[in-house]
Amino acid sequence: MTDAPLKSQYWSGFRQGLPFMLVVVPFGLLFGVVASESGFTPVQIMAFSSVVFAGASQFAALQLMVEDAPFLIVVATALAVNLRMAMYSASLAVWLGEAPLWKRALIAYVNVDQSYAVSVNRYEDRPQMSLAARIAFFFGAVTPICPVWVLATGVGIWVGDAIPEWMALDFAVPICFLAIIAPMMRTLAHMVAALVSIVLALALAGLPYNTGLLIAAIVAMIVGARVEVMSARRVPA
User: How many structural domains compose the chain?
Assistant: First the structure.
């Protein structure tokens, strides 16, 4: 089976990423509004969304900065929340690791939860895809996501309090992650890691500066990895 033309692969990825605009737009709007109300300047906010480029860790870091948390706590929390990107990179390396360095660097920069989810699912469903086809699909998937995130942040700064409360933009954060995570709960290790992270995050919610989140993330990854190893050992050779 031969690959479809690269343009077709790109637009296929674009169509896969397009539905995520429904959560990326309110997510970005919410960050723009919250950051603006927290006293950050428009330049600082746009730089935050353009350089850090990670919604969940941006919200976590923003909350801690507003609370005047120590610098190291802010950085550690943002890194812990975004640590999943290291795992995403390891997973994508299997499929995109032979790409030229500049392309890998660009992929690493624009890679987000949504682009990772749709791309890996496509690669696993169609392992015969060529490297060029995989890259085209990936960049197609991020096209309706990444620029829109930055644009939505800017609109959030601009409109500010004009957004009515009944719109409840904060719904976008949990729905976004549920939409990404739910289809990926394919193994026992995944489910155990998710359960451990939920239980610990709730149990340790009272710790200062969201350090409970750091502990929950680290323990969940260790437990998940351990379950993965034990499951692999049970598989007959």
Answer: 2
